[in-house]
Write a structure and sequence with these properties.
Layout (H helix, E strand, L loop, with lengths): L1 H5 L2 E8 L5 H11 L5 H13 L15 H6 L6 E6 L4 E6 L7 H8 L4 E7 L6 H12 L4 E7 L8 H14 L7 E6 L23 H7 L12 E7 L11 E5 L4 E3 L3 E5 L3 E10 L2 E3 L1 E3 L3 E6 L10 E4 L5 E12 L11 E5 L2 E15 L4 E3 L11 E14 L10 E6 L5 E7 L1
Length: about 425
């Protein structure tokens, strides 16, 4: 058990166009790594028989909703957990359909790596480019491009190299810490867990080997942010009658004795005590879940953020951002919207649409609010009713992101990253 706790966790998401084989890849990865239990495998066999198949459809391992199983497509983000001797994993299997782009953004927003699948027969499609650009926009550190269905291409090296060359050219200006390409057959299991003898011209790692070897960098130490997830109140007659605040530190380190500010109230205090589980510690580092106790009895609620006084975030009533517009109705300049940033919700309006991104070329073009359509990526300037405390997305993915909500329908209309 202690060895399992010490293994680092990797979060990764799948993306790509419809029927590129994302769910099959995840199912094969789970099956070949012995991560499926006997009852799960039996359920997959029964579901495959009901569909009239003479083989086990491993894609059903992630299609958890009945509507998904009936339609044979992924609708929602399906999360799966598994472990190997080297690492623990959280997988987010995201939809490929364009109308479910918001779900893909949800799965990718916390990922350490993204696997983009390309159907080798179809090559690079617009949705492939869109998902790749969104991964770059979300600053996903590692991108793994899997050229799938190589079995239907006769294991052709030239077909694989043509696709990878085109994608490298498209991603020339995108900034990934790691960019990797792997030829695979998710259906037959080639280069998923074990190497393939059918493609001797490829001598790189398999998908699992690459996932196990990706180096996870520590979050930036310049932006300690502690979002409060729960307020732990003392039990009656307890000697310790102080409240503790539980959460996961996003970036930086918090030390006992640090002067801190609670946002958005801007009340000040000091870190009196820090606990990881039941163990008292002198500091909490980025990515660690902990509880802290403040020296003063001040009002702190779930959703507040505790930050060091010496490292305060920015504050402004105007922000510049890039958003992915998620609604069928065009973006309306001066339209009334709500900006949700963590637990903070502020009234706002789009003051200006500055540009739109052509996902086929990655280039910016002029745009207005009336020309913006669903799933387009646009640059905007927002005017807020009250000052917002924030970091840029490049500094902190958690405190640099937000969603926009229609004030009247309560629909989520956009997901954004602050410049």
């Amino acid at each position: 058990m202690s060895e399992l706790k010490q293994k680092k966790m990797l979060r990764f998401a799948t993306a790509g166009s419809v029927d590129d084989g994302k769910s099959t890849l995840i199912g094969r990865l789970l099956y070949d790594s012995k991560a499926l239990f006997d009852d799960q495998l039996e359920a997959l066999k029964q579901s495959s028989v009901k569909k009239g198949l003479d083989f086990v459809d491993l894609s059903l391992a992630t299609d958890g909703l009945r509507a998904e199983r009936e339609q044979g497509i992924t609708i929602d983000v399906a999360y799966r957990y598994f472990s190997t001797p080297l690492r623990k994993f959280i997988i987010a299997d995201t939809p490929g359909h364009i109308q479910y782009t918001r779900n893909m953004i949800t799965g990718a927003s916390t990922a350490d790596a993204m696997i983009v699948l390309v159907d080798g027969r179809k090559g690079i499609l617009e949705q492939t480019r869109r998902h790749t650009y969104i991964a770059s926009l979300l600053r996903v550190p590692h991108l793994i491009v899997c050229v799938n269905k190589m079995d239907l291409l006769g294991w052709s090296q030239s077909a694989y190299e043509t696709i990878t060359a085109d994608l490298r050219s498209f991603m020339a200006n995108m900034d990934f810490e790691g960019l990797h390409f792997i030829p695979i057959s998710a259906l037959e299991g080639d280069n998923i867990v074990e190497g393939s003898s059918k493609m001797p011209w490829y001598n790189g790692p398999t998908v699992l080997q690459l996932l196990e070897s990706i180096e996870l960098k520590e979050e930036k130490a310049s932006a300690a942010r502690f979002p409060v997830q729960a307020v732990i109140r003392p039990r009656p007659n307890e000697i310790d009658d102080h409240r503790h605040y539980a959460g996961r530190l996003s970036g930086g380190s918090l030390h006992v004795g640090d002067e801190v500010v609670v946002l958005p109230s801007e009340l000040r205090s000091k870190v009196l005590r820090a606990m990881i589980g039941f163990t008292a510690v002198d500091r909490v580092d980025a990515g660690v879940s902990a509880s802290i106790e403040l020296a003063d009895e001040i009002d702190v609620s779930r959703g507040d953020v505790i930050v060091p006084l010496a490292d305060m975030p920015r504050s402004s009533k105007e922000i510049a951002a890039e958003i992915c517009w998620l609604h069928t109705r065009p973006a309306a300049q001066r339209g009334k919207l709500l900006l949700r940033h963590g637990s903070v919700q502020l009234k706002c309006m789009i003051e200006e649409v500055t540009y739109a991104i052509d996902v086929n070329t990655g280039l910016k073009r002029e745009a207005t609010d009336t020309t913006i359509q669903m799933n387009e990526i646009i640059g905007i300037r927002l005017k807020l009713a009250q000052p917002l405390h924030y970091d840029t997305y490049a500094e902190n993915r958690s405190t640099g992101s937000f969603i926009l909500i229609d004030e009247f329908t309560n629909d989520t209309v956009a997901a954004g990253m602050i410049h």
